[in-house]
Amino acid sequence: MQTTTDRRPSAVRRRTAALAAAAALAAAVTAAAAVPAAAAEAPPVPSYDFSDCPDLPAGADATRWKCEVLTATGSMTLGSRHVPALAPMTLTHAEGPMPDGSKGQVWGALRSEPTPVPGGLLGNPAGHGLPPLLSLSLQPEYGGRSDFYSVGNSLGLFTVRYRAIGPLLPQGCVIGGDAPLEIRLQRVGDSRWVSKNPPVIAFDAKDELFTAPAAEGCGPLGRLVNDRLGLPAAQGNAMTLSATYTFKTYDQLPPH
């Protein structure tokens, strides 16, 4: 009888300990389940370079003028050729009221690396065995005119020309040299705040109505470039961008 009496408290203690462990485990699981919602909140805020901000017009109020820096990636169809992944592009400009109260804008810069055209000059769709000598890339350059004041979903316009780059092409081979492409982006969906400090806004946009002229200054290979890209093209062109932009007023910028 003594042996039975000694075992009973031990069994009770084991059951009590098991219940306590189960309760602790349940509490831990509940706490862990609540963590991801708080931990995975906002994506990292991109960094921006304001070194391309242009000088202000004479007499402009630095506290009312802002420099905007926009970065974008996306895809483009130019003529008959689809380029699925454009190299990132950065556009910088300034805007604000002129001394007489009218709206003012000053262009800053467009920066981007060349984007390879799939298949190069010969049009090999997969690019297999394509000699580097026959590669073809397109690099955007500012076309000389822009207006970034938006109205509703219309985001203004900017003009761009594309330099066609390849080992066999002269430096002056350009699409839109004399008549740059006029890109008039339309916002797709709503803009989204990525961050409010610093201010970063994201949006998607597209233009499917611009025309694309023939390439010029390409020497003996000009016809091959135009045939490869399907230029000139009055329709069928498209640009789709996913962009973010930020801004600072000029009194927040370091002196030039």
Sum this structure up briefly:
The protein has 256 residues and is of the alpha+beta class. Helix content is 18%, strand content 38%.
Please describe the topology of this protein.
Elements: H1 2-39, E1 66-78, E2 81-83, E3 89-97, E4 103-112, E5 115-116, E6 137-147, E7 157-165, E8 174-175, E9 181-183, E10 186-196, E11 199-207, E12 215-216, H2 222-229, E13 238-249
Antiparallel strand pairs: 1-2, 1-3, 1-13, 3-4, 5-6, 6-7, 7-8, 7-9, 8-12, 10-11, 11-13
Task: Explain what you see.
This protein has helices at residues 2-39, 222-229; strands at residues 66-78, 81-83, 89-97, 103-112, 115-116, 137-147, 157-165, 174-175, 181-183, 186-196, 199-207, 215-216, 238-249. Mean pLDDT is 85; it is low at 1-40. It is of the alpha+beta class and 256 residues long. Helix content is 18%, strand content 38%. The chain contains two helices and 13 strands. Strands 1, 2, 3, 4, 10, 11 and 13 form a seven-stranded antiparallel beta sheet that branches. Strands 5, 6, 7, 8, 9 and 12 form a six-stranded antiparallel beta sheet that branches. The termini are far apart. A hairpin with an 8-residue loop joins strand 7 (157-165) and strand 8 (174-175).
